[in-house]
Amino acid sequence: MSFLSQTLARVKPSPTIAITGLARELAAQGKDIISLSAGEPDFDTPEHIREAAKAAIDAGHTRYTAVDGMPELKAAICQKFKRENGLDYTPAQITVGTGGKQILYNAFMATLNPGDEVIIPAPYWVSYPDMVLLAGGTPVFAEATMQNGYRLTPEALEAAITPRTKWVIMNSPSNPTGAGYTREHLQALTDVLMRHPHVWVLADDIYEHLVFDDFTFVTPAQVQPALKDRTLTMNGVSKAYAMTGWRIGYGAGPVELIKAMAKLQSQSTSNPSSISQYAALAALEGPQDYIAESRAVFERRRNLVVEGLNACPGIVCPVPEGAFYVYPSIRDLIGKTSAGGTLISDDESFATALLHETGVAVVFGAAFGLSPHFRISYATSDEVLTDACARIRQFCEGLR
After folding, report:
1. What contacts 174, CB < 8 A, 6 or more positions away?
2. Whole-number pLDDT of residue 12
């Protein structure tokens, strides 16, 4: 018998982490590498947040807190939901975890039984299916094509629902596509869910503040209040405030679910870092100027990358509504051969050849459940992005 758990065999390592690691290895060998695979802001955490963390250390706030978040932070999260989303929650309906990923994982572990299904729109963030599998559930994929703006249609949602469906995940703006759901889009989806009262909604709003042009963010419980009692709304400080390494995520939902998630967390990690919680408190209660400033930078970068990729022969890159990703199609490149002699049979071979022949690291679309595409994170400088687009264009021009 294998020493390792059979549960572990159900999941695979994160492709984004693997590609980022390979890019680092090649760079360490002295190769000129541009890594566009990691999904985190390239800015420093705002100064007032860093100062709040230092002050917390100096004040001796270095002990355990309540298992799923200190009361002050939960109160601030309630105010955030009221102020920004028009949603009323009490602290008893709030949970704080070590990053948004733990909130999602806790929810699945606390609710899924063997045979339970979770609907995941594809393309999806790479961790969704594996978290469902670890919790003993079954991922059910509903395709959201480029022709539909990478958004799940009501028809596709309806077709995916079965008596075994427990959750549907809604991520807007999306990783990996940057697609955002308007109020009208969400209304059509929530209308479907109102006909299926056994299905719960897991709203991943982590990119809420990174939206561009005239797009207005809304969340499912805001669009359809009748769904609030079967919705877990997850968010965090990582993307909005450049705090990925601080590891603070939070969720709001029915008390029974929040208690179950706290019970699970009490026997796993226990409380998130006390220092990080004080930093998150400063982020939510302090000046919000950083959000608008970073949004403007990301919007400029989005425009730069979309224009640069659409200038590449055989690549079609839609304009995303938010986040800091693009998810272009390479359908017209399949079957061609690179200047280095690699047959582009799929998006993985495209990404591999691109990395080894040009030094540009991207994530292939199969990792996100929809091919033939690839994902670029444009959370890096204009100069780097311009160089990367030029290399990709040269690679595409060399295909035969």
Report:
1. 121, 123, 125, 150, 180, 207, 323, 325
2. 78
